[in-house]
Specification:
The complex is a heterodimer of chains A (163) and B (566). With 163 residues, chain A is of the alpha+beta class. Chain A has helices spanning 15-25, 54-66, 96-107, 128-142, and strands at 2-10, 32-37, 43-51, 70-75, 81-92, 111-116, 119-126, 143-148, 152-155. In chain A, a hairpin with a 2-residue loop joins strand 6 and strand 7. The chains are: A alpha+beta (163), B alpha/beta (566). The complex binds thiamine diphosphate and magnesium ion.
C-alpha cells in the first residue's frame, strides 16, 4: 500500500542523505520525495511517498523519528491529507494533434508554457492521480520529456502542523 | 578567553569530565596534539592502531558507563576507526569520536588524506557533525556528548577540519543543551506499567528476558529486586550477562543459539515474556515462526524502533529500563497479597524449570590429558577477583566464557555482541584497565582474534596497564571450524592456522611476561602465577582442538531444536 509521509526536519548539513540512507539501508522504497524550507526558521519539510504493509510503515515512521534531525513525522495515509503535484510535460504537437493536445490541456485545467511549431510544453498541477490521467491521454500523442515534482501534502482542516 | 579550536575541543572534553582519551596523531590533528602536549588534565593513551583506540574507548565506556573518547587523523586514521564505531553502534555504547579533516576550503577536492568520514560512518553512528565554524564548536561538542549518552546511547562522530582547529574564538561552554528535534522518552508511562503488572500477576509461566539495555541503564539493582520479589525466572542475552546475578536460583543463564537448555525451553513454554532492554535478535529467537508460541509479550525499551521490529508485542513500554523497573517495584509493593498468591501459583513452573536444568545442565566432559577450554574458564572464575572485568574476543572462547564464567555483577563482561568483532577483546580490556587501574582486567581470546590487535601489547606495556591476556589456543578459527564440522562435512577450508606462534617469546618481545601450557594439571599454576605478576601477561592454553560449543540451535531452527551433544 502507498503511503504519504511528511517529515519536518532541521535544515542541517546532511539531513537529506541521512533520510535517503535510512530508506536504502533498510530496504524501504521511496516512490517520490520532495523537500524545501518552510516558513519556520531553519526547518524544512519533506514529503515522502513510500510503500509497505502496516508493520513496515510503523518501522519507517519510528526510524525517521529516531534520526536526530527529524522534528516531526506525519503519516497522511488515511485520507487526512490533501496531495498535489506539479508536472512539466513536453509533447509532440504537429498538424492534427495540436488541437487534441489543447483540448486535453483545457479539460485538465493545465497550461501551455512553451510553444514551438512541433511541440507544446504543458504545466499541470493536481492530485498525483490526475497527473497520471493526463499523462495517459498525452502519451499516445508522443511524450518527449516529463518532469514531476513528486507529491506534496498538507493536512485538512484548521489545524496547522508546525515543529 | 580567546582560544584556538584545538584547545576549545580539549576544554570541552574537560568540561564533560573526560579523564582519558585514546588517540593517534597525524597531519590534520597535529594542532590538537600540540595543545595536548601541555594539557595535563587529560590522560592521552596512544594505541598502536586506530581501530584498537576506538575499541579501547568502547571498553572504557562499557566498564564505567561514561562516554568513551577516541581521536584519529583524517583519511586512513578515520577509516581505521570504522570497525570500532560500528562495534559500539551495534551494542549501543556511548562514545565520541573526534576525527581530523582537511581544511574546509579543500573539502570535496580529493585533498591529501581526505575521506568523507561522515558519509562512511552514517549508517553506524547515532549522529555526526562536521564543524564548519569554530564558533559552533563548543555547542557541537556539548550536543555530541548529550546525544551519545542519552536515550539509546551510541557513538557520535565530530569531524573537525584543520582550519577550524587553528581559528580562534571566545570559549564559552553552554551550561545546558536543547535540541528541539531530539527528545528521548525516558520515563515509562504509569498506565502501561500498571497493565504490565496485571499481566505479570495473571501469568503462570513468566520469563524475564533481559538484554544489554539493563546494563546500559544501570538497572541491575531494580531488576534483581523485582525478579526476586516476584520469584520470576530470568534469562539474559550475551549483552545482558551480569545484570542479574547468575548465582541466583532464579537465573536461567544465557538463552539463544548457545544458550542453556532450560532457558530456551522456558522461552518456548512461557505464557508471558517480559523483555527488558533486549531486541529479539535472530541469535536469540531462532526461527521466528516458532518463537515463544504460547507467550504474550511485554517489551520495555528506551528505543521505540526496537519494539515490534522482529516480533509481535502485546504491551509496549517505551522508557528507560531502570525507571520502568522502579515503577514496577512500587506497583508490586502495593499488591502484596496478590504477589504472594502469584508466587505460590508459580510452583509448577519452577518445577518444570528445575527439571530442565537437571536434564541438560550446561556442562562438558573434563580430561586429564588435554586441557578443556571450559575448565580454564571455570578456573579463571575461581581464581579471579569477585569484581574482575572480563573482555572477550569473538568465537568459541567467547561462548564458553558466557556459558561457564558465571557473571554476577553488571559491567564485568565486555563483549562484542551485535557486530561480533574479532580483535575487540584485547583493546577493550586495555580501555577498561585504563579506567580501573586497581581492578583485575582479563581478556579471553582465541588464537585467531588475538592476532587482529596483538600490537596493543606495546600500549599495555608502555602505559603500565597490567591486562591479563588468556589465549585459548585451538590452532583453529574454531567457531567457523565448528560450523564446517557440523554443516559442511568437515571441509576445514582456511580455518586451520597452520603456523604455531611462540606466545611466550612474543610476550617477551614486547617486554611483557608469557606463560604457556598444554597440561590440565598446570592450568591453575599458570593462572596463579599470571595473576601474581604485576604487569601485562599472556597465558596461552593449548586446548582440545576440536572441542565444540554446545548446546547449539542451528541457524534458522527453533529454540527447542537444540543440538545437545554431537
Ligand atoms: C573481524 C572478523 N572477521 C571474521 C569473523 C568471523 N569469525 C567469527 S568467529 C571466527 C573464528 C575465531 O577464531 P579464534 O579467534 O581462534 O577463536 P575460537 O573460535 O577458535 O575460539 C571467525 C573467523 C569475525 N567475527 N570478525
Ligand atoms: Mg581458535
Amino acid at each position: 500500500m502507498q503511503h504519504t509521509i511528511s517529515v519536518l526536519v532541521e535544515n542541517e548539513f546532511g539531513v537529506l542523505s541521512r533520510i535517503a540512507s535510512l530508506f536504502s539501508g533498510r530496504g524501504f522504497n521511496i516512490d517520490s520525495l520532495s523537500v524545501a524550507p518552510t516558513n519556520e526558521d531553519g526547518m524544512s519539510r519533506m514529503t515522502i511517498v513510500t510503500r509497505g504493509d502496516d508493520q513496515i510503515l510503523e518501522q519507517i515512521t519510528k526510524q525517521l523519528n529516531k534520526l536526530i534531525d527529524v522534528i516531526k513525522v506525519i503519516d497522511f495515509t488515511d485520507g487526512s491529507g490533501i496531495e498535489r503535484e506539479l508536472a512539466l510535460i513536453k509533447v509532440t504537437a504537429e498538424d492534427e494533434s495540436r488541437a487534441e493536445v489543447l483540448r486535453i490541456v483545457d479539460i485538465f485545467r493545465a497550461k501551455i508554457i512553451d510553444v514551438t511549431p512541433k511541440s507544446y510544453t504543458i504545466e499541470a498541477t493536481g492530485n498525483p492521480l490526475k497527473i497520471d490521467a493526463i499523462l495517459d491521454l498525452l502519451r499516445p500523442l508522443g511524450l518527449k520529456e516529463l518532469v514531476r515534482t513528486g507529491a506534496v501534502s498538507i493536512g485538512r482542516g484548521a489545524k496547522g502542523w508546525k515543529g | 578567553m580567546k582560544m584556538n579550536g584545538a584547545r576549545i575541543m580539549l576544554e570541552c572534553l574537560k568540561k564533560e569530565g573526560v579523564d582519558t582519551v585514546f588517540g593517534y596523531p597525524g597531519g590534520t590533528v597535529i594542532n590538537i596534539y600540540d595543545e595536548l602536549f601541555s594539557f595535563k588534565e587529560i590522560r592521552h593513551i596512544l594505541p598502536r592502531h586506530e581501530q584498537a583506540g576506538t575499541h579501547a574507548a568502547d571498553g572504557y565506556a562499557r566498564a564505567t558507563g561514561r562516554v568513551g573518547v577516541a581521536i584519529a587523523t583524517s583519511g586512513p586514521g578515520a577509516t581505521n576507526t570504522v570497525t570500532g564505531i560500528a562495534t559500539a553502534y551495534m551494542d549501543s555504547i556511548p562514545m565520541v569520536i573526534i576525527t581530523g579533516q582537511v581544511p574546509t576550503p579543500l573539502i570535496g577536492n580529493d585533498a591529501f588524506q581526505e575521506v568523507d568520514i561522515i558519509g562512511i560512518t552514517r549508517p553506524c553512528t547515532k549522529h555526526s557533525f562536521l564543524v564548519k565554524d569554530v564558533k559552533e564548536l563548543a555547542l557541537i561538542m556539548k550536543k555530541a556528548f548529550y546525544i551519545a549518552r542519552t536515550g539509546r546511547p551510541g557513538p557520535v562522530l565530530v569531524d573537525l577540519p584543520k582550519d577550524v582547529q587553528i581559528a580562534q574564538t571566545e570559549f564559552v561552554y553552554p551550561e545546558t543543551v536543547e535540541i528541539r528535534s531530539y527528545k528521548p522518552t525516558t520515563t515509562g508511562h504509569p498506565r502501561q506499567v500498571e497493565k504490565a503488572m496485571a499481566m505479570m500477576l495473571e501469568s503462570r509461566r513468566p520469563v524475564v528476558y533481559v538484554g544489554g539495555g539493563a546494563v546500559l541503564s544501570n538497572a541491575s539493582d531494580e531488576l534483581t529486586e523485582l525478579c526476586r520479589k516476584l520469584a520470576m525466572p530470568v534469562t539474559t542475552t550475551l549483552m545482558g550477562l551480569g545484570s542479574f546475578p547468575e548465582n541466583d536460583p532464579n537465573s536461567l543463564g544465557m538463552l539463544g543459539m548457545h544458550g542453556a537448555y532450560c532457558a530456551n525451553m522456558a522461552m518456548t513454554h512461557a505464557d508471558l515474556i517480559i523483555a527488558i532492554g533486549a531486541r529479539f535478535d535472530d541469535r536469540v529467537t531462532g526461527k521466528l515462526a516458532t518463537f515463544a508460541p504460547h507467550a504474550r509479550i511485554i517489551h520495555v525499551d528506551v528505543d521505540p524502533t526496537s519494539i515490534k521490529k522482529n516480533v509481535r508485542v502485546d504491551l509496549p513500554i517505551v522508557g528507560d529500563v531502570r525507571d520502568v523497573l522502579a515503577k514496577m517495584i512500587k506497583q508490586a509493593d502495593k499488591l502484596t497479597d496478590k504477589v504472594a498468591e502469584f508466587k505460590a501459583a508459580l510452583a509448577p513452573w519452577h518445577e518444570d524449570i528445575v527439571g530442565w536444568k537437571a536434564k541438560h545442565p550446561i556442562g562438558y566432559k573434563n580430561s586429564t590429558t588435554v586441557i578443556k577450554p571450559q575448565f580454564v574458564i571455570q578456573k579463571l572464575r575461581e581464581l579471579s577477583d569477585e569484581d574482575a572485568i572480563i573482555s572477550t574476543d569473538v568465537g568459541q572462547h567467547q561462548m564458553w566464557t558466557a556459558q561457564f564464567f558465571q557473571f554476577n555483577k553488571p559491567r564485568t563482561l565486555l563483549s562484542s555482541g551485535g557486530l561480533g568483532t574479532m580483535g575487540y577483546g584485547l583493546p577493550a580490556a586495555m580501555g577498561a584497565q585504563a579506567a580501573f587501574p586497581e581492578r583485575q582486567v582479563i581478556t579471553i581470546c582465541g588464537d585467531g582474534g588475538v592476532q587482529m590487535n596483538i600490537q596493543e601489547m606495546a600500549t599495555l606495556v608502555q602505559n603500565r596497564l597490567p591486562v591479563k591476556i588468556v589465549i585459548l589456543n585451538n590452532n583453529f578459527l574454531g567457531m567457523v571450524r565448528q560450523w564446517q564440522e557440523l554443516f559442511f562435512d568437515k571441509r576445514y577450508s582456511s580455518t586451520c592456522m597452520e603456523l604455531p606462534i611462540d606466545y611466550v617469546k612474543l610476550a617477551d618481545a614486547y617486554g611483557a611476561k608469557g606463560f604457556s601450557t598444554s597440561k590440565p594439571g598446570e592450568v591453575e599454576k599458570v593462572i596463579k602465577a599470571a595473576f601474581k605478576h604485576t604487569g601485562p601477561v599472556i597465558m596461552e592454553f593449548m586446548i582440545a582442538r576440536e572441542e565444540k560449543v554446545l548446546p547449539m540451535v542451528p541457524a534458522g531452527a527453533s529454540l527447542n531444536e537444540m543440538v545437545l551433544n554431537a
